[in-house]
From TrEMBL:
Keywords of this entry: Glycoprotein, Hydrolase, Lyase, Nuclease, Signal
InterPro entries the UniProt entry points to: RNase_T2-like, RNase_T2-like_sf, RNase_T2_His_AS_1
Identification of the protein by name: S-ribonuclease
Gene that produces this protein: S7-RNase
GO molecular function list: ribonuclease T2 activity; RNA binding
Role, per record: Self-incompatibility (SI) is the inherited ability of a flowering plant to prevent self-fertilization by discriminating between self and non-self pollen during pollination. In many species, self-incompatibility is controlled by the single, multiallelic locus S.
Lineage: superkingdom: Eukaryota
Organism: Prunus mume
Stated family: Belongs to the RNase T2 family.
GO cellular component, one term: extracellular region
């Protein structure tokens, strides 16, 4: 009897693992996180030699990530088509060089390739490669986060700091939906730095929806934007 019980439990466990694995690799997602990064923060915390030639002071695309509420990092690395550079047409390529540069090492194509392979493949049921990059550029163009913050007097500063809600409210006032923020903590000073702004979109990547708050910006702690 005990053997039967434990083998049933084992079977259920194995099935659960198998189900989770399938869910994470077949591109089953609920919504999109459109993640834009603040390049100076990326470079400040990067272990890679950051691209100093392009000291960008605008939010640029990190990625368009099909996500699940139970685990926003999933799905990833799905079994879709591999990145094909010729599918990103010359006109789109020049737009992406502005909106989606590789701020860490300057190899834009390789950055697009890794984002497509890790995230884009999981939403291929909805957006093919061309549409995935085209739509990401449109999202970036539609809400200019740098300008939105600037208009709310939230600009890079060595002395002034903001609360999570100061930054979120400024963006929400323009986009009518709640963004989420991602921060990096300086291990030496313990200060929090604004790293990324996330806008969320429903399954079709057309309509914007509210994002859930992520934990990386702490609770109630001041945020530096430099
Ligand atoms: P994800 O792979 O989940 O899209 O994002 C995490 C990875 O993206 C990290 O390894 C981070 O170093 C990388 N990343 C963030 N921004 C850039 C960038 O501008 N260029 C490159 N090459 N990698 C980046």
């Amino acid at each position: 009897m005990t053997t039967l019980k434990s083998s049933t439990a084992l079977l259920v466990l194995a099935f659960a693992f198998f189900f989770c694995f399938i869910m994470s690799t077949t591109g089953s997602y609920v919504y999109f996180q459109f993640v834009q990064q603040w390049p100076p923060t990326t470079c400040r915390f990067s272990s890679k030699p950051s691209n100093q030639q392009r000291r960008l002071q605008i939010f640029t695309i990190h990625g368009l990530w099909p996500s699940n509420y139970s685990n926003p990092r999933m799905p990833s690395n799905c079994t879709g088509s591999q990145f094909n550079f010729t599918k990103v047409y010359p006109q789109l390529r020049s737009k992406l060089k502005k909106s989606w540069p590789d701020v860490e090492s300057g190899n834009d194509t390789r950055f697009w390739e890794s984002e497509w392979n890790k995230h884009g493949t999981c939403s291929e049921e909805k957006l093919n490669q061309m549409q995935y990059f085209e739509r990401s550029h449109e999202m970036w163009n539609f809400h200019n986060i740098t300008k939105i913050l600037e208009n709310a007097s939230i600009v890079p500063s060595a002395t002034q700091k903001w609360s999570y809600s100061d930054i979120v409210s400024a963006i929400k006032a323009r986009t009518q939906t709640t963004p989420s923020l991602r921060c990096k903590r300086d291990k030496k000073t313990q200060l929090l730095h604004l790293h990324e702004v996330v806008l969320c979109y429903e399954y079709n990547a057309l309509k914007q929806i509210d994002c859930n708050r992520t934990a990386t910006c702490g609770n109630q702690q001041a945020i530096w934007f430099q």
